[in-house]
Amino acid sequence: MAFSHKIFKKIENIVGKSNCLNKKEDILCYSYDTTPDVYYPDAVVFPQNPQEVSSVLKLANQNGFSVTPRGAGSGMTGGSLPVKGGVVMAMTRLNRIIDIDRDNLVAVAEPGVVTGDFHKAVETHGLFYPPDPSSSDFSTLGGNAAECAGGPKAVKYGVTRDYVLGMEVVLATGEIVKTGVQTAKGVVGYDLTRLIVGSEGTLGIITQLILRLLPLPDMVQTITVIYDEIETAAETVSEIIRQGIIPRSIEYMDNASIRCAEDYMKAGLPTDADAILIIEVDGTENEVSHAVERVTSVCRKSGAREIKTAENRQDAEILWKARKSVSPSLFKYGPDKINEDIVVPRSRIPDMVKKIKILSRETGLTMVSFGHAGDGNIHFNIMLDKKVPAQLHKANQAVDEIFDFTLALGGTISGEHGVGITKSAYMTKEISAESVALMRRIKSAFDPAGILNPGKMLV
Length: 459
Hints:
single chain; alpha+beta; Uridine Diphospho-n-acetylenolpyruvylglucosamine Reductase, domain 3; Alpha-Beta Plaits; 4 domains; seven-stranded antiparallel β-sheet; 18 strands; 36% helix
């Protein structure tokens, strides 16, 4: 059944007239994310509680329209795009931090809480929530969980799934269920929490999260290491880990990304360098001092041109702002961007760096790489003009070749951006037909009518 004015009126009765939009100028804002694709929904709804979410989903099942959950719309693969029309369910009104329990290192929060705001809130209690995607100033906890977001600190602390202990979730058929626990251990039944984290809103809509916290480290020190050859920088990453040093972050930027960030931020980055590493260590004062000494020793022996230690927190914050500015600033190299986030074993980063250089030379396209070198997560970008068919053809071939090479190295085609619509065609490169079939059966069990975020992942 097509979405109708009558259905819209029923949704208005559920959430209130002011919390339901269908004018084109209003729904435009919910038709896109950071991909270039645009899909208009028929309506946008802003529920305030799980009961309203449940009522809308029951209505969708009865009438056959799709529902696409949405956080801040900052995703990189189209996960929040309403590709089948229907309703976008924006979770921004569910934005409370319900509890921060210092005794048990647990917090309870709603999905619309902005990640950066959550970081600040728990830090006032002397606590620490490590997941820190580049979009943390505006992305939300619910979106982070749906995509299993990572960030720079994943090398030491892990990704979002490692911090979600439990959830309240509304299933596609309207049931409100609780998953997981509020304790450090719990093995009763299937681990539905882990199944839903990273499922991109295709199995249920998250309305509450139970999140694991850590004590806030006493001290953090940031180091910038400058290299004349990117291969040397890549090899240094493996050597640091080989020496038994686990920094909380090891980020790398190639020359193209350094120049972009410097143009954008004027942070004093060395634009003549082939690559830089941003390394951060944390712990007690003694632990940090010892780690800095060991890290700088490894970098010096590995051929670093220069090693700089941030003198204060402000200097470190400027450096991280420059790093986080890379992705949006890349458009100086072209009007369009293909953005991938491959992951390879750390020891194979030098092989991938060489492969990207070769592909850029062969295709004549600008290719930029940066990312979380500490866990092998490389943000690989191709800059082009998609209106030029030859460029688009070469770029698509390059993505295909990079994915094949990534898998041959023992890696994965997506570390934290998800699958959405941009990577769904590539899933079978990595996932067997039998595994895909099993995933389809799981999807059918959770969403028998296929109304929840259709067209994503398992298309």
